[in-house]
Structure formats: C-alpha cells, structure tokens
Amino acid sequence: MTALSLGPYAPFIVSSYLLVTVVVAILIAWITIDYRRQKQRLRELDAAGVVRRSGRSATEFK
Amino acid sequence: MTLLDLANPTRFLTLTSRLLPWLAGLTFVLLLIGLYQSAMAPDDYQQGATVKIMFIHVPNAWLSMFVWGVMSLAALGTLVWRHPLADVAAKAAAPIGACFTFLALATGSLWGRPMWGTYWEWDARLTSVLILFLMYLGLIALWRAVEDPSRAARAAAVLTLVGAINLPIIKFSVDWWNTLHQPASVLRLGGPTLDRAFLIPLLIMALAFSLLFLTLHLAAMRNEILRRRVRALQLKQASQLP
After folding, report:
1. Does some domain include residue B191?
2. For B43, which DSSP code?
3. From A23, which residue of chain B is nearest by alpha-carbon distance?
4. Residue B36 is part of which domain span?
5. Which in A59, B167, B194, B215 has the greatest CB count within 10 A?
C-alpha cells in the first residue's frame, strides 16, 4: 500500500469525493426530514381525533 | 416472515424499524473501510491518482442501472400482481436512482477532464446514461403530477418498463458502438481484468453503496407508506366535516 498522494489531479479527485458526500448527505437529510414531517402530520391527525379504519391510532407506526 | 407477510404495510413498517439501524451501521462501517482502501490504493500506470475517482464513479454507475432494474420489477408487481408495496417501492426508489445517476455522470465528467481532455463527449455510453437520468426526472415529475397514487402508479409502471429498454443499451453501448468510454473491466465474460489492488477497494465501495441504497430505499418506502396513511386520514377527516 502506498500513502495517499493525489498529485496534479487533486482538484478533480477531491471535487468528486466532496460532490458524492454532499449529494448523499442531502439525500439522507431529505429522507430523515420527510419521516419527521409525516410523523408530525399523523400526530396532528391523532390529536384531531381521526382514527384509522382498523380503529387503531394514527400515530401507531408499527 | 414470508413475502406475503411483507405485503402488509404495517408488518413492513415493523420489519423496517428493526432492520434500518443495523443496515445504516453496516453501511457506515463498510463505507469507512472502502474509503480507507480507496485512499491507500496505488496510482494506476495510465490514469495516475485519478483511478481513485473510479471507486465512487463505478458503484454509482452500477447502481444507476440497478435501481431502474428494481423499479422495473416493482412495475411488474404493480401491473401484474397488484402488490400493495410494489408502487411504494418504485416511487421511493426513483429519487435515489436519480441521485446515483447524477453522481455517475458528474464523477465521470470530473474524471474525463484530466484523462480525455473534456468534461463531456456525446458518445453512446455517456448519452445513454444522460437519457437514463432524464427518464428518472420524468418519472419523479409524473409521480408528483398525478394526485391519486394508484393512478400515478400504473402510468409510472408503464413508463418504467418502456425505459428499461435503455438498460441493455447502456450496458452494451461500449461494445456496439465505437465509444470514448472504456469497455467493461469487472462485469465481463472471462472475469475482471482489474488488478486486485484496484478490484478490492472497488468491490468494497460497490457493496457499501448497494447497502446505502437498500437502507435509503427502505427508509423512503417507510416514508411513502406513512404519507399514504396521512392522505387516507385527511380524506376521512374531510368527509366527516359537516
């Protein structure tokens, strides 16, 4: 194994890895925020007294 | 637990809540190992250090096609078997597939500039992957344009299956046409032509990105099931208004 040395192509290599990191981070954040938003909406519906067809609470996620 | 049990969204949510923390942890560990292996890989005699871009470009390129394949199977599940989770799976996969395709194009472009002397070339491989990216965007737009999820699902399923024609075109574009893009060096008859020093980090990164997709896909499917539950309850609430 050799030590990390990027040479004259460093800007292209670093940009590639940074871009992948940023896009994956945005994807994870979007999915996490979306999950919290849906749970919040279900809590609001539960508080308004709306129950599922099965009679179970809207906030019963499992 | 059988496949039939998983058809029940509530059971699917239970399974997902158990699986997701383990999958996320495993993905994180594999990504760390893959990144370390990529950083320590030697320079290629032709590509120099830019070979390190391959360790993220290739997994994203593979996944861009694999995700469309998953969506095509889900489309069959929607149209043929009317599986309740099939269109949930297809809808949840599209944005993730679009991101992988974008990353395959962008990292390929960043590799192409120092190696080919250009960021972009209208050759068969690059153009067919660009078309795949545009099809992902079209599919996402279709899902957002039609309010009723079941109607949107059928239209999206047909579009997905038509779009699947592009997958063999992408795969074999480097064999069928004279392209700037190099031919397959891992997934080919006769085995990989890559040296172990490059093959091992590449396969670890491919496995890590595949697990990343599985983790994100399950999480996005869970969100979609909850979104549909919200929609159903909002409709019920509206119907109860005086």
Report:
1. no
2. P
3. B99
4. 21-41+48-181+196-236
5. B215
Q: Which of B217, B89, B70 is closest to B149 using CA atoms?
A: B89
Asked, for residue B8, whether it belongs to a domain, the answer is: no
- What sign for the dihedral angle of Cα A4, A10, A16, A19? positive
Residues 5-34 of A with CB under 8 A from B: 5-10, 12-13, 15-17, 19-20, 23-24, 27-28, 30-32, 34
How far apart are the C-alpha atoms of A17 and A43, rounded to whole Å?
Answer: 39
Taking the Cβ of residue A36 and every Cβ of chain B, the question of whether any pair is shorter than 8 Å is answered with no
Number of domains present in the structure of chain B? 1
pTM for this prediction: 0.90
Cα–Cα nearest to A8, from B107, B43, B194: B43
Strand partners, B44: B48
d(CA A28, CA B223): 12
Average pLDDT of every residue of chain A: 85
Q: Mean pLDDT for each 10-residue chunk of chain B (242 residues)?
A: 67 90 97 94 87 95 97 94 89 97 97 92 92 96 88 92 93 83 72 82 96 97 94 85 70
Do A51 and A58 touch, CB atoms closer than 8 A? yes
